Structures are given as C-alpha cells and as structure tokens.
Amino acid sequence: MRDAAVYAGDLRMSIEFLNRFETYLLNTTGQAVSLVDDVNHPNFGILYDTHHAHHEENNIRAAITAAGDRINHVHFSESQRGTLGTGLVDWIGTVKALKKINYQKWIMIEAFSKDVQVLSEKAHVWRNSFPSNEEVYENAIGFVRNLWESVAVD
Hints:
Blueprint: H1 2-8, E1 13-16, H2 29-39, E2 44-49, H3 50-56, H4 60-67, E3 71-76, H5 91-100, E4 107-109, H6 117-122, H7 133-150
Parallel strand pairs: 1-2, 2-3, 3-4
Helix pairs in contact: 2-4, 4-5
C-alpha cells in the first residue's frame, strides 16, 4: 500500500473498512487506523462509511475522534442503504465527531439500488430501501446541509 501511495503522488488514497457481513479483512475504524499508520504516507487515509461503522462500532464518536485526520473521505450511508435519516445511523454523533476533528473534505451520499444488476448482485441488493432515486438525492442535500449547520460540537 505504501508503494501505491507513493505512486499516486498528489492523489489522495482512501481505504474503506467494511462490516463483518461483507468481508473479514478490515472491519473497524481502529483496524483502518492501524493500517494507515503502518503505511505511513501523507496521502493514504481512511474512507469512513457510516453504514459500515453503524454495524461495527460501539461508540461512533470515539471511533471518529480516535481516527482524527486519518479520515480523508466520508460516505454518508444509512443503516439499510436507503434515504438518509430513515434508518438507525447516529447522525448527530457522527457530525459532532467529524466537526470535532475539523473534517472539511468531501462527504459522499451512498444509497444502493437494484437498478444496476451487476453491482446489485455483487453487493447483494435484492430490493431498494427508498421509494425513488430522486428521493435519495433530493432529500440528501437538505438533510446533510441541515445536519451540518444545526449540530454543534460539545
């Protein structure tokens, strides 16, 4: 991974941990922190995904805070991969922690659909967890903006 990071030059690389139902290689923020520290390259960091963290972390705020500036990309994805705010993800705790570490990079919205057959088969998506694709993106922008603006750091 260090060789890949060196080769990438100025491009930022991010490793995403996945929940234990999808893989056994890297399942927690702490495991990702260890790998990033072992690689020890400034452009190599963690892609923090709220869906996977929801399944694996006992304390979302502590996980994000411990990872700190190693987090270089974030996916906002609901517990059931549907419309943000309709599942079980701790959005307030997530945003409080991201603000505490002064995260100011990209946040990507991620919802899985059965529309792309090749991807849905690989990701085991048998049904959509939202009424329409439009609902996902139309609600997501306001949801994230409102969340970011209204949540204060403790």
